[in-house]
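Lab notebook, bench 4. Continuing the backlog of folding jobs that were queued last week. Each job is logged with the same field layout so the records can be merged later without manual cleanup. Today's entry covers LysR family transcriptional regulator, a 302-residue chain. Filled in by technician R.K.

JOB TYPE: sequence-to-structure
TARGET: LysR family transcriptional regulator
LENGTH: 302
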Amino acid sequence: MEIRHLITFQTIVEAGSYTRAALKLGYTQSTITSHIQALEHEIGGELFSYVKRKLKLTHLGRELIPLAEDLLSTHDQIKNMRSSQEVKGVLRVAAPESLTISRLSPIIREYSLKYPDVKLILTNGTCGQNQVDLISGRVDVALMVYPELKLEKCTHYVLSEEKIVLVSSNDGPDHFDENKIDTTNQFFITNEEGCSYRTMFEKHLIKHGIHHFQTMELWSIEAIKQTVMSGIGFSVLPYITVKEEVENGKLKILGHSETLDPIYSHLLVKKKKWMTPSVAVFVELVLNSFSENAYLNTKSLK
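JOB STATUS: finished
OUTPUT FIELD FOLLOWS
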């Protein structure tokens, strides 16, 4: 088993085919095939199969992904041991859209200015997907907006509590009442399934016997806000994402008789014996930024 065989396997998984992997790596397709055959011989089973002419991972292939990613990550660390104190390379960060638009922009700007030799790749996904990507090794750092977490495989930092609010258009009702809600004409305007605060609110509705609700799924928080402003429904969002619109009178926070379950912003890093400098300084910047914001918010309340 050679490192290049694992690189080939990982590239096929990312590219989706032998042909695209060969183009990306600069190999012939026969070389790609021989690499996979060598891996399969060493492991003792097939890594890929074709289902209706589409390349699919086998169960063995899926099991190999996190192991290969860990091994290749370790290989990169060994190669870079001489320059282990230099902040360079690639940093892959996964974050939900809510934190990206409300918290991360100044952090990313400062990071990019301080460490121009690092290529920062930011992806947006649901909090659950971000955690999966971290554990599997596809990203180096994951941020989440989620209830309390207990994780064994990650170094975990609770950054702050995120106030979750119900919002409607400025000419909408002042109060949200589960017993009087119009489930046929009022849309619950939200993002995709898997979003933590959407899940939390849907559980809240079910607890009150509301099992069917008109739901409109939109692709971004900005689209959700604009649609709510039009007056056809309400949404449930972190306050930090609607703060400007509420203060400008474009959206209104709905009063609510019950306290919703608390949600927190989290920073996760996979547990390793050695943290790369690019990850370490990013974590430090995030922790410092949230700490400063908490101090400023406390000061403004005095």
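OBSERVATION: The radius of gyration is 23 Å.
SIGNED: R.K.
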